[in-house]
Design goal:
The structure is a homodimer. By secondary structure, chain A is of the alpha/beta class. Chain A folds into two domains: about 50 residues, Helicase, Ruva Protein, domain 3, CATH 1.10.8.420; about 110 residues, Dna Topoisomerase Vi A Subunit, Chain: A, domain 2, CATH 3.40.1360. The first copy, chain A, has seven helices and six strands, in the order αααβββαβαβαβα. Chain A is globular. At the A-B interface, α1, α2, α3, β2 and α4 of A face α1, α2, α3, β2 and α4 of B.
Amino acid sequence: MNFPSRIIENAVNEFAKLPGVGRKTALRFVLHMLRQDENQVNLFSESMQKLKKELKFCKNCFNISDNELCEICSSYKRDHTLVCVVEDIRDVMAIENTGQYNGIYHILGGIISPMDGIGPTDLNIEPLIEKAKNNQIKEIIMALSTTMEGDTTNFYLYKKLNTFPVIVSTIARGISLGDQLEYADEVTLGRSITHRTLYETNLK
Amino acid sequence: MNFPSRIIENAVNEFAKLPGVGRKTALRFVLHMLRQDENQVNLFSESMQKLKKELKFCKNCFNISDNELCEICSSYKRDHTLVCVVEDIRDVMAIENTGQYNGIYHILGGIISPMDGIGPTDLNIEPLIEKAKNNQIKEIIMALSTTMEGDTTNFYLYKKLNTFPVIVSTIARGISLGDQLEYADEVTLGRSITHRTLYETNLK
């Protein structure tokens, strides 16, 4: 694309670095920004700079936080011996939305992905192992994606945590609500039978 | 969505104002920005501010330009009596890419759209009429979208320009390259027959 101005070209290039944004969409964003008044554009660029300058990470769970400890880690109502391992804050938000979880989290900041050059040392794995080693936690729930990378990370963590007195579990894999059995893939369906849930009956 | 931090929430809200970006995509963008180093984030926000502060519009055609007159308007190789009326700079870029046009442009900065509260006075229509009135141009080619709004704008401009000694034309509507006739809509197919192109033969 030949842009009529270098300023436009720079702005398009910056927007095009966002995930899933090509140069056509980036140009659409830039033209939208051009139509805004200067105040609005300043607000936008300030909020970006604040992201890097003012944002803190919880020193316990590496969640994004406005303070030293995040709201979850500083809550006395939470079970601090139960830790859910997730990839990033989107997963924390998703699990929090369910209202079903009362433990704390540990955010890895990504998953092991050799294709993207992300190895175990790039993630917050060491602090998790420290916690397990220091006997601070009873159970670790792995809640990572069911992708190749997620499984690799699961396996790596399991191997590392194996030697410490901590229960390691993983979230249930199975048929989603509303899914039809005939369209489910074999692996999921197979797992859903292997890991079936028992109804509570008098027999038990 | 409940965000763990106000800074994140602000940044997500800013991104979500972009066209076609919802809050989930906005959060994805924000997390991407968080993974960048500070230098990169500064580059991004600076390029946004430059957009508003340093960008000029060509005083002749209202194209985006680094100087008073854009490259096209200041080129002596261009036919300055042939003006192509377009909606925004994306259309200029698209037409320039064809390499088939040698005239200059006139950028309206939008099209008449009562639904979005855009009337004729919000667009660069008056300067176009001035140019026609002052006998500066021979032909005006209308190259607006084939939407309701595009047609309204076409009609409005045609009515305004009607009284001046200038030829008004519109880009050809017809079957696109690679289109199959059976799938073309009736209006397009009808127009492509009415405005058929004659082959040059000896008969002529």
